[in-house]
Amino acid sequence: MRDLQYIQDDLFDRLNMQLEELVRIINGYIAYLERAKHGENEPGANCSVRESAAGGYFVEDNTNLSFPEDS
Prior knowledge:
The protein is α+β, with helices and mostly antiparallel strands. It has one domain (2-61). It has one helix and two strands, in the order αββ. It is elongated, with a radius of gyration of 24 Å. The relative contact order is 0.08.
């Protein structure tokens, strides 16, 4: 875009600096989310929310509970 002279050089430079800062912020947030990922044992980790054919929503428990058999 800069080569086509659609915007002035100083405006391009300011926008480019803001874009680079935004990329750093987003990448930092992604890294934070990856570090803070909930484990399998967290409440609700095995549930999902789905839309029904009728237009409503329901929560589906995806937990496969297995209990040791009584001895």
